[in-house]
Design brief:
Blueprint: H1 12-22, E1 24-27, H2 33-41, E2 49-54, E3 61-62, E4 64-68, H3 74-97, H4 108-117, E5 126-130, E6 135-139, E7 150-155, E8 163-165, E9 168-173, E10 180-184, E11 191-195, E12 198-203, E13 206-216, E14 219-222, E15 224-229
Antiparallel strand pairs: 1-11, 2-4, 3-6, 4-5, 5-15, 6-13, 7-11, 7-15, 8-14, 9-10, 9-13, 12-13
Helix pairs in contact: 1-3
Bound molecules: 2-oxoglutaric acid and fe (ii) ion.
2-oxoglutaric acid is lined by residues 128, 136, 141, 153, 168, 214, 216, 226, 228.
Keywords: Iron, Metal-binding, Oxidoreductase
Pfam families: Oxygenase-NA
InterPro entries: DUF2086, Oxoglu/Fe-dep_dioxygenase_dom
């Protein structure tokens, strides 16, 4: 049995509508508790990863993250293969709304071929660990010329019992205005799909472009683990 059977049971049309409208959507019960625990255990298994980043060193925040290497663990490939085609119609509608001459391919394999053609050969899914005092500064995960405008993060442990603080923060900036913050603390096993860089919002004179960033507020106690699923590959 697949670890992500739960994905099929969701109403993806509603999820798609929500992402189109708000720029994000939370999908609950994607990973069962065992799978989350196994992924956390795997944090110590150096054979799974291509690169470890101590976030303080780059002033990205405080915490550690590790990029998985190809071939990805099955759970991650399954999530990518399942979710990508659900997001392509939204991504293409966004590009159309914003009059951008970009069409994303229906298949992830074709997106990866485009990445290869641009020198982006390396896997981007990652696992992140933050202890007390840990945080992730607001950013966008673009790894080269080819990028898909949405990504996902899976919450591997629970806000409350496992850690406090460490909220997932998104900011949304519309032209000529200050940023709006959206703060979430999704439960263990859930998946948040969100905008990587920008999306359209309909105004009086057509669509305008809003820029989004994401990060994590300071963890006050405990340890917080997440897994990031990005669809495009990276140059380094
Ligand atoms: O730890 C988090 O919730 C944020 C992770 C993140 O920045 C990402 O997956 O791109
Ligand atoms: Fe990120």
């Amino acid at each position: 049995m697949s670890t992500i059977d739960g994905l099929n049971t969701h109403d993806w049309v509603s999820v798609q509508k929500e992402i189109y409208k708000k720029g994000y959507a939370l999908v609950e019960n994607v990973l069962n508790s065992n799978t989350c625990d196994q992924l956390i255990e795997g944090f110590q298994d150096s054979t799974l990863y291509r690169k470890t980043v101590e976030m303080e060193r780059y002033r990205f925040g405080s915490g550690t993250y590790k990029y998985f290497k190809y071939p990805l663990p099955e759970t991650i490939s399954e999530i990518r293969e399942f979710v990508y085609p659900k997001l392509v119609p939204i991504a293409n509608q966004w590009m159309k709304d914003l009059k951008k001459d970009v069409i994303f391919p229906d298949s992830l394999a074709v997106l990866h071929q485009q990445c290869i053609d641009h020198g982006q050969l390396l896997a981007t899914p990652l696992i992140l660990k933050y202890g007390a005092g840990g945080y992730n500064t607001l950013h966008q995960d673009l790894y080269g010329e080819v990028y898909f405008p949405m990504q996902a993060v899976l919450f591997l442990n629970d806000y409350g019992p496992d850690y406090t603080g460490g909220e997932f923060v998104m900011t949304q900036q519309v032209p000529r205005a200050q940023s709006k913050a959206i703060v979430l603390h999704p439960p263990k096993g859930s998946m948040l799909i969100f905008t990587t860089n920008y999306r359209p919002i309909k105004g009086k004179k057509g669509f305008y472009r809003v820029s989004m960033r994401h990060g994590v507020s300071e963890v006050r106690s405990g340890e917080r683990y997440t897994m990031g699923v990005i669809f495009h590959d990276a140059t380094s």
